[in-house]
Write a structure and sequence with these properties.
Structural class: mainly alpha
Strand content: under 5%
Number of strands: 0
Mean pLDDT: 77
Number of helices: 5
Number of domains: 2
Radius of gyration: 17 Å
Length: 94
C-alpha cells in the first residue's frame, strides 16, 4: 500500500505501529499514580521478588514469574513503574 500510513520510520517499524506503541507507552506513564509507586515499593522490598531478581533461578524465580501476571498487585505495579517484569534483574546503578 502506497499511502503514508504504512511507510516505515527510521527504525524499520511501520509508522502506524510506532504510533500505537508510542500511545501505549504514554498511557502507561499517565496511569502510574502515587498509589502505584507505593505498591511497587512493596515489590522492591519483598524478599521473594528480591531473591528472584538477584538469582534468576530457583523456586522464588518460578513463583514470581508465575504470580506477577495477574495475581500480585505489587508485581503488576512494579511493572507499570519500572517498565520491566518483577522477576527481571534490576539495572545496576551507574
Amino acid at each position: 500500500m502506497k499511502d503514508g500510513r504504512y511507510l516505515s520510520n527510521r527504525g524499520g517499524t511501520p509508522l502506524f505501529l510506532s504510533v500505537i506503541l508510542r500511545e501505549k507507552k504514554d498511557m502507561s506513564l499517565k496511569s502510574a499514580t502515587r498509589f502505584d509507586q507505593a505498591l511497587a515499593r512493596v515489590c522492591e522490598i519483598c524478599p521473594v521478588c528480591s531473591q528472584a531478581r538477584r538469582e534468576q533461578e530457583g523456586i522464588a524465580f518460578r513463583i514470581v514469574r508465575n504470580v506477577e501476571e495477574g495475581i500480585c498487585p505489587f508485581c503488576m505495579a512494579y511493572e507499570r513503574i519500572h517498565g520491566r517484569k518483577a522477576h527481571e534483574p534490576s539495572l545496576p546503578y551507574t
